[in-house]
Write the structure tokens for this entry.
Amino acid sequence: VIRCRAAVAWAPGKPLSVEEVEVAPPKAGEVRIKIVATGICHTDEHVLKGSLPNVEFPVIPGHEGAGIVESIGEGVTSVKPGDKVIPLCLPQCGECSFCLNPESNFCQKSHISEPQNLLPDKTSRFTCKGKQIHHFLWISTFAEYTVVPEYSVAKIDAAAPLEKVCLFGCGFSTGYGAAINTAKVKPGSTCAVFGLGGVGLSVVIGCKVAGAARIIAVDINKDKFAKAKELGATDCINPRDFKKPIQEVLTEMTGQGVDYSFEVIGHADTMIAALASCNMNTGVCVMVGELDSGSEISIDPMLLLTGRTWKGTMLGGWKMRECLPKLVSSYLEKKFNSDLLITHTLPFAKVNEGFELLRAGK
Ligand code: NAD
Ligand code: ZN
């Protein structure tokens, strides 16, 4: 058993509390990882608010981390102590019908099919003050040590800087993959990205790498525009600067609407605006943002009847275990610069300050 620090969410609506926890050794088929760095994704904020489905409290959140294998359970063969790894919030069991389908990345062992609040044997490896603490998405990266199933871990290049590639665990891979895999952005095309957080800016990177000719970045926080431009946005617009709905502004700017639009905020109104902003016949709109659980969207069906395609994405469509190591290699070859997404680096004890920066749009 390892004693270390972890950030525990005891109940919805409360700040995280950094506690000493006990982390049990990995059982058969499990891996214990020393987490070196973790990012904060808006999905963790959904967890703290209690608006993500099927999460059980008390819980150790965090799902965008990178670390080093500390020990392995019986039968583990794909990683060994000392390996650099990224824990996966979307597993790849390799056996379910989705894993066997080359078109799908949505392993049936994922949280939406079967809650990942306890490890597959239905027990937790975390305790704090004598209480059992739940895992989050099986990976709980807001802990100095965490235990995950072997199929929820990807071994990466030993040269990878963990404090940079932790973003590949969620935000970067999601945004970049939404453009490359889900939308399949074509060279010369026009794109619109709604929301310029870590995920939206990663969509901008993906559109640029895919060869889009025009990338229109949309946010109500104009402080995000300089970074968006640095990453490849050609135009930046703030919906609050216009009297007209933003979909009309985008349609006027582009003639017939954009070829690809992405909603990376998580609001029903911006999801509809993003859909209406793409070309009425050939446009593709990708929903990346997450709505609060229980919310619904109602649209004029004519938006789709004319031919538009409306898609969602989970983690950018990557089969995580097999694709993440390749993405990390592309990063090391400087195919893109995801380091620009990092705005602040804080010590673990200041995790709540990190959330305050996220809420403040910083
Ligand atoms: P973030 O909070 O860092 O960024 C959101 C951005 O949206 C901010 O820049 C904010 O100013 C902007 N925004 C808010 N309201 C707006 C409006 N009305 N119009 C225009 N811009 C507006 O969030 P993030 O970490 O980048 O995550 C974005 C979304 O993606 C979240 O909903 C998150 O849960 C979701 N997400 C989905 C997946 C997936 O697999 N589909 C993975 C990770 C994150
Ligand atoms: Zn995330």
Notes: Residues 41-43, 46, 170-171, 174, 194-200, 218-221, 224, 239, 264-267, 270, 288-290, 313-315, 358, 361 surround nicotinamide-adenine-dinucleotide (ligand 1) (CB under 6 Å). The mean pLDDT is 97.
